[in-house]
Amino acid sequence: MALAFLFMSAILALIGPKLVLSIENAWNSFLALDLPDEVHPKALMEKVLGNFKDVLFLLAIAVFGSMTVGILVGAMQTRFLIAFNAIKFDLNRINPVQGFKRLFSMRSLFELVKALIKVAVVALVGYSAIKGKWKEFLLYPAMMPAEAAAHLASVIIDVMIRAGIALLVIAVFDYFYQKWEYEKSLMMTKQEVKDEMKDIEGNPEVKRRQRQMMMEILRSRMMAEVPKATVVITNPDHVAVAIKYEREEDEAPTVVAKGKNAVAEKIKEIAREYNIPIVRNPPLAWQLYDNVELGEEIPPELYRAVAEVLVYVYSLKEVS
Q: What is the pTM (predicted TM-score) of this model?
């Protein structure tokens, strides 16, 4: 609105003298018309339009030019977005209850205060522009009509330009405020973020329960592999690692089960139940627990240490 108003003021400032001259000539021509006693209204209208066509043309330039600027500026602010949904028929828009709520909402109160500030600023700017020209206005009766009209037009255009600049300053602040308020309205509260995370990733309690069930399933599968182990290497109190190795089938020993504390005790309990040798070797137990995952073969750097344990286990079996 401010830019369109400024554009119209600038156009009027450029074409003002020519507009005043065109009005004077058109008015003189109209007063000098020699009309018959009986004249058809259509013919009279054609004569009037013919005399004032230059005036109408100049005014059309100002009006349609400012309209074009207003449309372009509005389109640039919305990035030329055309929302047909905004103009579709909706009964809620004519709902008196909803309208009453909007009328007395904080948003409406703020817009009212903003409108009053705009009016006050424009009024103050207009007053500052004409307060020193009162004596000149008193001289109008002594001036020629064209001279008085030209002077009045210059004062009006000066007021319009000053008011347009003031509106533009207000518009800049209002634009950034509206943008900040819009972005703030899009931000979610902490509770909304939590609810959205639940919708996207699931309820944390349910996920925790799912993880517990998954761990229990993996643990039960791991415990089922302990009876197939060749040896269990322990810390002995905190860690237990079950290793399986068949000389004819496996290329390298494989970790089939491992655990700490209660899980380690369960592994050792199953090993005793199935007469699987339990060897105490804390450094090797910790290395296997930290560096080898379930189902993986032991790394080459541990071959020698594990081979010594397996030789010891095979010797026990040969003795027995």
A: 0.47
